[in-house]
Amino acid sequence: MFNKMIAATLPFMPKKLVWLFSKRYIAGETIDDAIKASLDLNAQGIKITVDLLGEFIKDLSQATENKDAYLDIIEAFEKNKIDGNYSVKPTFFGLLIDPEVCYENIRTVVAKAAEYNNFVRIDMEDSPCVDKEIDMFRRLKKEFPNNVGLVVQAYLKRTHTDLENMMDIKNGSVLNYRLCKGIYVEPVEIAYKKYEEINENYIKDLDFMLKNDIYPGIATHDKNLIQPAYDLIEKYNVPKDKYEFQMLYGVTPELRQSILDQGHTMRVYVPFGKDWFGYSTRRLKENPKMAMLIIKALFSRG
């Protein structure tokens, strides 16, 4: 209850105060900020995926602006020879307004990345978006078989079936999924709620990916999932270029380094943009348990 109260209050605090917490987890507001953060990570042997913050737009003019912004991001990152790829949220491109316009916008972004032999990840959002985003991935995968991937969420009860159903689009190309737990608040009818259930399903999904030659982005900060992931990699004798670990910018750097030290590929999700405040407060509402950590950060860094 206390965490929920704090989570409801923080969005109304001064932005400068919230930034004391947020700046650790966000690269900045500009492309230059994101490039600097990405180059710093590359220098540590870490790959990146960059994300322009924003989602759930209100009109299609914003979708066009966002598409153009991503085209500029791709040009800038490729010019700077950054070892990384790109993540997109379909609602940022108009998914809930006009799915076909959204598809055309994201297709343009994927086509631009493909010009550089690079890769775009379609983020998975809350449950009303899942079918639309899988359909979009299927369409893009046919045209750009090596340049597009998807996110799947282990806490959704449907995810394992989705993985099985999407095996038909492999067709000699690599299926590339980021496997995360999931952060959106979903009803118990469609999502696992207990920590143990979510972790059990995460490992079940990862097992399916590794034994079926799917390239997983093992996206977790949970120490209790790292060793089981190592065990599965060893069990299936997976080469180190057939999987990677993924983490969020600024989160669990010690755990991240320990994975790197064992020779595994690490990719960090680098979010940036002027919507950092909305991003931070939305994530807080979705995960109220973060509230106490934020309060501690505000006072320890203030």
Description:
The chain has 302 residues and is an alpha/beta fold. It has two domains: 1-26 and 278-297, no CATH class; 30-272, Alpha-Beta Barrel (TIM Barrel). 50% of the residues lie in helices and 14% in strands. The protein is built from twelve helices and eight strands. It has helices spanning 2-9, 15-22, 31-43, 60-79, 99-115, 127-143, 159-165, 195-211, 223-235, 253-261, 276-286, 290-301; strands at residues 47-52, 84-88, 120-122, 148-153, 176-180, 215-219, 244-248, 266-272. An eight-stranded parallel barrel has the order 1-2-3-4-5-6-7-8, surrounded by six helices. Strand 5, helix 8 (195-211) and strand 6 form a beta-alpha-beta unit. Helix 2 (15-22) crosses helix 12. The chain is globular. Mean pLDDT is 90; it is low at 297-302. Substrate binds at residues 89, 282-283. Pfam families: Pro_dh. This is proline dehydrogenase. FAD binds at residues 124, 153, 220-221. Its cofactor is FAD.
Please tell me the overall pLDDT.
90
- What number of structural domains do the residues give? 2
Shape: globular
Q: What share of residues are in beta strands?
A: 5-15%
Distance between the termini: 25 Å
Q: Which CATH class of the largest domain? A: Alpha Beta
Strand order of the largest sheet: 1-2-3-4-5-6-7-8
The CATH topology assignment of the largest domain is TIM Barrel
- What class would the helix/strand composition place it in? alpha/beta
| Largest pleated sheet | 8 strands, parallel, barrel
Summarize the helix and strand pattern as letters: HHHEHEHEHEHEHEHEHEHH
Number of helices: 12
- Helicity range: 40-55%
Residue runs with pLDDT of under 50 for 5 or more positions: 297-302
Overall radius of gyration: 19 Å
Number of strands: 8
Catalytic activity: L-proline + a quinone = (S)-1-pyrroline-5-carboxylate + a quinol + H(+)
Binding site for FAD: 124, 153, 220-221
Binding site for substrate: 89, 282-283
Cofactor: FAD
